[in-house]
Design a protein that fits this description.
487 residues; Amidase signature (AS) enzymes; two-stranded antiparallel sheet; 14 helices
Length: 487
């Protein structure tokens, strides 16, 4: 296919625009898929973003999509759209490893529910993108698939755990992507790679088929699944076709997400730029503040001092206890963690010891943390009675250079010239995660080094359409996605 025959939206435009071109017949599904596969073949060897290539099955489905359209049959709003999903989702016939070598020959029997819903809307899923081991890092590397790299600078990480997802979207290897988030795993990579990402309100997109536990499996605390894209409108589209109850309660449950605001004028926006327990580099803080000032210039009412009525350190501790317990419980090597804890000295209160104790917490310890989390939820509920939305960072720095040193908690990030603990920046992800809040990442421009910075927009539970809407409004004020040089 010649470049002239491709839609102007290819490869970096809106997925919605590409989907419209497919539905109208201005391009065929096979043509568009092959065009993206050509880019995969050209750029992926260096990026290592796509790690499971299912192009044979995808070409078969794309041909079926073209035949259906020729007969006047449209499958849905994503009819024929080529896209990828995170490696942690089941894709029928393909491995789901979560980075574990012991699972490299595992083959999923069927698609995860989110993948089923994307396909029901017409998507052509042609592969899966890389993750860290256990989906537990701000980088994406593992012994099965190797290391993914950031298209803005191959010496830097694309984030994690949806790092391959964000790299693929940023480099124009895929029209749309679906990832997951428990500790910023959609939001952190979106910020590092300069794309949009959305962490939905907990449970509105079911996670069946996104687990190392055989399906159906119970809904896991904190964890959500959601889209990454090159526009806020694409986030809204992907959420629309995937949100909704699972079959167990679909008889009586409907999620009627409230509409977004109609105007920036008078919008009450709180701004949380920094916190002593989780310092943010000035290069990041400046971009978040610039986004806030742009909103004020457009008529929004800013409040830089507004905070929910809880101690940030205590809130972070609650999140940490819940996070470690959930992350450990889903690991195949949980027994090893329990054995390590048993060997701890009683007076060992170092970071690794704290992690082990939280990871192997008793049911009662988790129960107490859950009750404390409910207090946080009500504090946020009260806060969002007085403020519509909240702007804050998601990462402490722009993308950092690859660091595979062990133990992981001993790693450091340089923030304003100081070496700070690697996991301190979890604070900015945990505020929304612990309380089940929706959070959207919008590109906030580039740092002085020329690296993307993300702006996190948080809203009350079920206000997903509002956080996505504000990300779209910001694009008109400060600019949105921009392709990395050389792609």
């Amino acid at each position: 296919m010649t470049a002239a025959a491709l839609p102007r939206a290819f490869p970096f435009g809106s997925a919605a625009t590409l989907a419209a071109a497919l539905r109208s017949g201005r391009i065929g599904a096979v043509e568009l898929l092959r065009a993206y596969l050509d880019r995969v073949d050209r750029f992926n060897p260096a990026l290592n973003a796509l790690v499971v290539d299912d192009r044979a099955a995808a070409l078969k489905r794309a041909r079926a999509a073209d035949r259906a359209r020729a007969k006047g049959e449209l499958w849905g709003p994503l009819h024929g759209l080529p896209m990828t999903v995170k490696e942690s989702f089941d894709l029928g016939g393909q491995p789901t490893t979560w980075g574990h070598p012991a699972r490299k020959d595992h083959a999923a029997e069927q698609d995860a529910l989110a993948v089923q819903r994307l396909k029901a809307a017409g998507a052509v899923v042609f592969g899966k993108t890389n993750v860290p081991l256990n989906l537990a890092d701000f980088q994406s590397y593992n012994a099965v698939y190797g290391t993914s790299r950031n298209p803005w600078d191959l010496a830097r990480a694309p984030g994690g755990s949806s790092g391959g997802s964000a790299a693929a979207v940023a480099a124009g290897l895929s029209a749309l992507e679906f990832g997951s988030d428990i500790g910023g795993s959609i939001r952190n990579p979106a910020a590092y790679c300069g794309v949009y990402g959305h962490k939905p309100t907990w449970c509105i997109v079911p996670k069946r088929g996104h687990s190392l536990v055989p399906a159906p499996g119970a809904e896991m605390d904190l964890s959500v699944v959601g889209p990454l894209a090159r526009s806020a409108a694409d986030l809204a589209l992907a959420l629309k076709v995937t949100a909704g109850p699972d079959a167990l309660n679909a008889r009586g449950v409907v999620y009627a997400l409230p509409p977004p605001p109609k105007s920036l004028k008078g919008l009450r926006v709180a701004v949380w730029l920094d916190e002593p327990i989780a310092p943010v580099d000035d290069t990041v803080k400046a971009r978040v503040e610039a986004a806030a000032r742009a909103l004020a210039k457009a008529g929004a009412k800013l409040d830089f001092r507004a905070r929910p009525a809880f101690d940030p350190a205590q809130a972070h501790a609650v999140y940490g206890r819940l996070l470690q317990a959930v992350m450990a419980a889903r690991r195949p090597d949980y027994e090893r963690l329990a054995e390590e804890r048993a060997r701890l000295a009683a007076d060992d209160d170092g970071p690794h010891a704290q992690m082990l104790r939280a990871a192997t917490a008793s049911f009662r310890d988790v129960f107490v943390a859950q009750q404390q989390r409910e207090q946080l939820r009500w504090a946020w509920h009260d806060f969002f009675g007085r403020h519509d939305l909240l702007l804050m960072p998601i990462t402490a720095t722009p993308a950092f250079e690859h660091d595979h040193s062990e133990p992981m908690p001993a790693r450091r990030l340089r923030v304003n010239g100081a070496e700070l603990p690697y996991f301190d920046q979890l604070f900015w992800a945990g505020l929304a995660t612990a309380a089940f809040l929706p959070a959207t990442i919008a590109p906030g421009g580039l740092s002085p080094e020329g690296l993307p910075v993300g702006v996190q927009i948080v809203g009350p539970e079920m206000a997903d359409r509002s956080t996505i809407w504000l990300a779209g409004e910001l694009a008109g004020l400060i600019g949105g996605f921009q392709p990395p040089p050389g792609y």
